């Protein structure tokens, strides 16, 4: 069950990212991020009566810390996109986000089988290949000034996964409330301090709201995966396969063409998932 929930979170994360990317073509990025984060918070509050759980103070603190890490990662990610090339920033950020939960799980004493370990290695490679829409040549041409912010952004996302995993099994979705409140306050405060408009044009509003609710749904699925007893090393790397659904949606909706590296990455991702789900 944990594996299925983690895979579902990856699919929904990718869909939310796709919607966020579409919205950013029609509205200012800071407005898209702030409004989508707030929309996710509203959706989460509506779910609390059913999935709120029984959190302890520590669960809410872990959630708040996760929200801070996620918000910082998001801000660094968009900063990296502004200064760098998407075909470099995306795969570097994704593999960094995937690697942190693996390292965190191992440091926390988790043990994984040989097949799962091989699957994790392949999944990390698949993330790079799938997200490299400019081909591997773009990665070889990457400069430190582009890679460093992307690595930092991915680290923020990875720490978000690690900290959410520290919450208790009985806490339900309550830790996400603390996470999203912190995230909304940080992003909103920075937007207001920079005196940037938070207005979203009406044609883009529905897409922004879909991105926000989708992102929150993906967070919820990941948290439920960890509470279902899933290994952090496994659930973290599976959730980080989100570029796969983003790329597939871009091909289906926007008619974007896949590069050779991306096609190979999709195949490697399938093999990786199979290996991770095999027993032993």
UniProtKB/TrEMBL annotation:
Domain EamA: residue ranges: 2-130, 150-277
InterPro entries: EamA_dom, EmrE-like
Any one Pfam family match given in the protein's UniProt record, by short name: EamA
SUPFAM superfamilies cross-referenced by the UniProt entry: Multidrug resistance efflux transporter EmrE
Record-annotated membrane-spanning stretches: 26-48, 60-78, 84-107, 114-132, 144-164, 176-193, 205-225, 232-254, 260-278
Keyword terms, alphabetized: Membrane, Transmembrane, Transmembrane helix
Protein family (similarity comment): Belongs to the EamA transporter family.
Protein name, as recorded: EamA family transporter
Species name: Geodermatophilus maliterrae
